[in-house]
Amino acid sequence: MDLNFIKATFDRVLSQQDFEGEIPDYKTIENSIALLERMAEVENSSIAVFDLYKKEFLTIRSKFKDQVPVDMDEAQTYGPSYHISLMHPDDAPVVLDTYEKVFAFSFNLPVKEKKDYKTIFNFRIGIQGKYFHFIQQIVTLELTPNGKIWLGLSISDMLPENEKFDKVHRKVINLQNGKCYLFEEEQTESSLKNLTSREIEVLGLVSKGLVSREIADKLFISVNTVNNHRQKILEKIKAANTNEAVTYARNLGLI
User: Fold this and answer.
1) What structural domains and CATH numbers belong to the chain?
2) What is the pLDDT of residue 217?
3) Contact 94, 170 (CB under 8 A)
């Protein structure tokens, strides 16, 4: 997609929130930003804080510069629009649509609920036709005293080779009640297509450290049935082992 078109769309969406002359106090967040930057140094994730008031990144710490070289000047000038422009042509329109719908949804929430939601989506991004697969989580980090969404935090992780996908999956989760919003129909369809409710149940118990015998006793099924479920889970999501399967499911909010 054309970068200028993406930027114009992004700016139009951000303009839906009026700060009404309020100027955020940046001194109040200096320690928080420093902590996030330190976290990015030790975690195997890329972390970015986007300022909706200035419409620019306050900080970007990428762990994947070797795989996906990022022009930091372009990223600072165009914000998230720059990263969308590097995405696979099938993914970029969906991701842009995700931002549009999530911002519109978030701006209209009651103030006390504006930090209660997490958006999760995956995408392919790359240079010169070579694409890497990522999953990103976005939350509202800070509000202004008047309740406007000021800072957004995004955390991006590169998926292993055996967790490749061919379309964007997106989900908005309420962190208080675990319910899905906005894209629940898409997510339900995707979840049913990939994993059955029993398989999700088994995977959830695996994530709690239960072995096959314990899962079998808890669900009143045979160990052989549990092992069959575990094998089908690995085959469906193309994971090498259950640890990868648990990570995949958690990232998509399935467990």
Assistant:
1) 3-183 (3.30.450.20), 195-251 (1.10.10.10)
2) 94
3) yes
